[in-house]
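---------- Forwarded message ----------

FYI, see the 6-phospho-beta-glucosidase record below. Original note from H. follows.
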Amino acid sequence: MNLKEDFLWGGAVAANQCEGAYLEDGKGLSLMDVLPSAEEGRKEAMYHPEVALKKTYKYYPSHEGIDFYHRYREDLALLNAMGIKAFRTSISWTRIFPNGDEEMPNEKGLEFYDRLFDECLKYGIEPVVTISHFDMPIHLIQKYGAWSNRRTIDFYLNYCKVLFERYGQKIKYWITFNEINMITHIPFFGGGVTVGADENANQVTYQAAHHQLVASALATKMAKGINPEIQVGCMLAAGSFYPYSCAPEDVWAATEANQNMYLFIDVQVRGKYPSYADRIFKAENVVIRKEEGDDEVLRENTVDYIAFSYYSSRLIGVGPEALKNVADGNAITTLKNPHLDITPWGRQIDPLGLRTTMNDLYGRYEKPLFIVENGLGAFDQVSEAGQIEDDYRIDYMRKHIIAMKQAMEDGVECLGYLVWGCIDLVSAGGGEMEKRYGMIYVDRDNRGHGTLERKKKKSFYWYQKVIETNGEVL
């Protein structure tokens, strides 16, 4: 299949995983800044943030990241040499509003993104900007309870207004929240939400998600008012659930799991909670508290496109045999699929699952899709000659691009393909550097040691050719 000439080949990062400079030029603390490395208990801190907020650790990976804050010109020059057409990054909320509740923004933070986006545009690279990417200000968490408090909608909209007015004529593609469905899996990541021992966790997280949905709709309205050409997208952590067997109970379990995954996207794309939401909320003992006008806001301000991350499909079943084989799945529990290879970090490699997921999404919504994260986290070795022969990454990307093109042949509209962690960065879940996704190597280890020197991997040259031929040479 011949792709359109404006197809957006590119890469993606997040501010909290690459920028570093965690208190420089007036930046405040965000939730990632209090999470330690894997060795010091990052997983416990993610799921029990009340511990992390009171504890002092020896090493915080986000504090320096890969020093993108100071090296962005070098990094963008490398990405331009690779030929990318689009670069997804996020804006650090606490660079713009250090506490989150100020009335006036931090000018030095805004100036950094002025320089960053101008550098992108100098090369003809389209910025794709995520407004909130696991980056809640700590002050909003500690003083207000973050997204569990409806007041956070106003703080977020104040932040959005500054961004749209400053960058709305330069940047076409915006994403309101990274992987919005993550709030029900890791509430602290997804919304800065902490749940008390005596609270119904489902009530707290679904109510927080409702506040995000209202905020997303109002931000979409605001963006269109400032520049009608802006395209605003929602985003989910995608990957269709397969039933473990053809037993009706397993098939139904997969149906329910997929509905749970699509719940918030249904609201952002269709403008209302789906009919099955009542069943979910009843089963979870959840009552969504809405204010007057919420339903109208959601209905009238739907998104333009659906952005999503895809790393693997998922598997679910209810029988005792199925439940013996649980894989890590990176935050979303899945069973081990005996037909798939699995990475050391629990992700099952399923290129055909991307085609399935794209067909599921497009068939459900008929809105343009945008693959804004896909890639392989792996251990990379630098040879004595200084080379990184990452053929396994090339194989992974090749097969997923083929699956994407097949989905487009099926009739799915897709705006682009962005490789996650196009340059090595800190893993969000593990806090590791050695779980590498990039096509550009960064000399840094899990304890923060290394020169930060950048090196092109074999995959750099392969992807360069893919882009040059618009996906024809794989």
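H. also flagged this: The chain has one domain: 8-468.
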